[in-house]
Design a protein that fits this description.
The protein has a single domain, classed as Vaccinia Virus protein VP39 (Rossmann fold). The protein is of the alpha/beta class. It has 4 helices and 9 strands. β2, α2 and β3 form a beta-alpha-beta unit. The strands form 2 sheets. A 7-stranded mixed β-sheet has the order 3-2-1-4-5-9-8, sandwiched between helices. The protein has a two-stranded antiparallel sheet with strand order 6-7. The model has no long low-confidence stretch (mean pLDDT 93). The chain is globular.
Length: 170
């Protein structure tokens, strides 16, 4: 995939949890990061893991279907949160929220289970997506630029097939 962000960009990490991505972006010089998660515990663990760099991140406890930001977002990054939304209304709310948050010309970088991915994750049902279903979910405000599938090897030794997609906000 092409490079879609720079350290001056406003980047929202949706379903941030305790992701190493946040620390990697801080180390790369990003200073406008928004770690979004529904869990205060996960956000607290993330803050602790960042140590002295914790101040470079804004921590937002919110549902990804309703989260708001004070600034337009340049990059909306979601690895493995969206696929937990299995109802069409929830998916539509997610797409609408992303469209409202991401500035025109900005990007959404998404990783979800592919059509041959697992039907459950962590004991919960998931939605699986193709490039066309993902583009439809994100709505007319986004254009699918690139997508590819890749296996993810879990810590338990199983493979999960992911669809990775890059979309641009019109």
């Amino acid at each position: 995939m092409r490079r879609v962000s720079a350290p001056a960009d406003h980047v929202a990490i949706i379903g941030a949890g305790t992701s190493a991505l946040v620390g990697d972006l801080v180390a790369a010089g990003y200073r406008h990061l928004y770690a979004v998660d529904i869990s205060d515990v996960a956000l607290g663990q993330l803050r602790t893991s960042l140590g002295d760099a914790a101040g470079a991140v804004t921590y937002i406890r919110a549902d990804m279907r309703t989260v708001t930001f004070d600034e337009p977002i340049d990059v909306w990054h979601d690895r493995a949160a969206l696929h937990f939304l299995t109802e069409r209304a929830d998916q539509a709310a997610y797409g609408a929220r992303a469209a409202a948050a991401v500035r025109p010309g900005g990007h959404a970088v998404l990783a979800v289970f592919s059509p041959v991915g697992p039907e459950q994750c962590s004991g919960l049902p998931v939605a699986r997506h193709s490039p066309s279903s993902l583009a439809e979910l994100m709505g007319d405000g986004f254009t699918l630029l690139e997508s590819f599938e890749q296996d993810h090897r879990t810590p338990w030794g199983t493979n999960q097939r992911f669809l990775h997609a890059l979309l641009e906000r019109s």
